[in-house]
# Entry
Amino acid sequence: MCTLDNDEYGAVGMKSGVADSRRWARYLTCALILTALCGICAADTGTWITNGPFATVPGNQSIYALAVSPDGSVIYCGTGSGSVFLYSFGILPPAAAFTANTTEGDRPLAVQFTDTTTHLPLRWAWTFGDGNTSVEENPVHTYAAAGNYTVNLTAANSAGTTTATKSGYITVIAPTVQTNSFSSVTTGVSTTTNGTTQNVTIDTTTAHVTTDGDKVTLNTTGSSWSSVAITMTGPVDTSSSTIDGTVSSVTAVTDRVTASAGSAGTPSVQIQLNMSEVPQSTAAITQTITKDPSPTARTSFTVAAASAGKQIDDIAYTLNVRKTDLANAGDGGIITSATLTMTVSSDWVTAHGGTNNIVVMRRADDGTTQILTPSITGPDASGYYILTVYSPNGLSTFSVAAVSAVSSGGSSSGSGGDSSDSSSATLRYGSAGHISSLTKSLASLSAGESATLTVNQGVSASAPAGITAVTITAATGIPSTDLVVSDRTDVGTSQLSGRPVAGIISIEPSGVNPSAIKSAAIAFAVSSDWLSANNLAPSDVVLARNTNGNWVDLPTTFAYSSGGLDYFTATTPGFSYFAVTKKASAAATTAVTGTLAATATGLVTTAPAMAAVTTHGTGVMAAAPVRTTAVPVFAGTTGGVPVMAVVLIGAGVAVLIGAGWYIRRWWIRRQNPALFMEYD
# Structure
């Protein structure tokens, strides 16, 4: 280490000048060495604080890590005075353990494994059960084939090796698909349309039928149909080989479809399709049964449940019905309604609190989401409950779900990466029945995880719109934070081109970088009286977001009406100010320049507090340290003081020292030129 001597020469003269040059050269060399050393250490490890006697100097001192042994058992530290100290840590064999962000889902299934091994593991060896391996600490593995997989983790350090095994830990489910075509159903059946009336002629020599009053049942249906029946407007005349009549309705029942659904067993689905006409021969429905709904449907289901004061605990399975040359009546088609018979394992129902917690979530093609209450019977001899569900708006996406009431803190959680907030809310009430400001805390989220916070601002005459729930999906890790929801009555609405505004609300997660948010869904309610007063239908309502001073209409879906309120869901790429208003007209632009400045909330990074390091005379730690994520020494990271800044400061100091030395030498030479003649 460098030491700086006192001035050896007190006289001014030749010897003093030479001594000065040597002394200043040593000053400069030591300054550069200390600058480089401290700069690297500060940049890579930060500052540690020790509480107690350290070397011969009592009190707290700033120290820097100079080196760390490969297994983390020995750390060499140095102080600004040049002293170096050794710390030893007791190392135990690792206790291997791990978790996964999901253990069940559709193929291909991507699983994030997380090592939770204690006692400082240094090496990891994973086997995923499908022939693939990894040596990463926290690998992501994608399972391509359906099946049950056993996962092993072997963790090692200098003290030993242990293995953790979880048998059948991952279940990957293959989708089940069945297509029901009407091509064979319409053999021998011809139709004509007169306005809104459909007439049918059935050739009984080709189509095998039975009749009962005004009903004709087609016995040879095929194409995965169990039965198809046509109801006429009057009694059927069977006196000839052809049957003519005017169609009143058509009922088609599919064959039962059985699928694998992991923990929900092997459920079955059967659909009774109610139509206003005989479909054309090219018409068909395709049923696909999977474990999980699409991310968009899951978000809609989560928000709809939160709006009803519920949280989704798990989804047994999902039925998606794709229609070919068919449409629901609400979309101008002939499907008037449907009745579904769906089964689910009694073990799954019991595990989620019983039949009172089981619902069927429906998401229509236009995004409208409903919570349907099934009629439940059973269990049957096979151990399955039978759910009968009436869907008044036809076919779309259905999920059998287990729900429960939201706790007083307000939360929503679900399988497959959803998490919940479990803390209390800070409220400030405005007008009666409406919360003008609300702050809720949210637990940290990993990349891809979602959390729904139940807000329920409420609606009143003076505040006709309120947020009911907010769902956040993380793009990257989000630390624990607060979500602040507040009315902004101070914000003008002239920028919205004269559109009626039910309310302007600010929604912001505190201290979160906007890039950390992948997407969000906002559920809100609007007074039906406000819609009537402004001559608006639910389809006219939109949630607009202020982005960089512009108001942009967000994709907004009407969910349902209840108790004088209309409920909606909107999706947004981020947070800001939001206006509940009327959709912009076709002639207007969807982005209107306003006077608001978008607030970009920067990421607040807080360095974790270091645990106190208690030292003893021998310099050996009394207890094993708590495991943290170690930053490799001299890894070139940018934490602490930036290396470039330290180098520039050091260079500046060197320049000043050099300039001072030359100025002093020049001054001595000027005052005593004779002393330098011999050396010049």
Residues 1-19, 30-60, 408-425, 589-643 have pLDDT under 50 and may be disordered. Residues 14-90+621-671 form one domain.
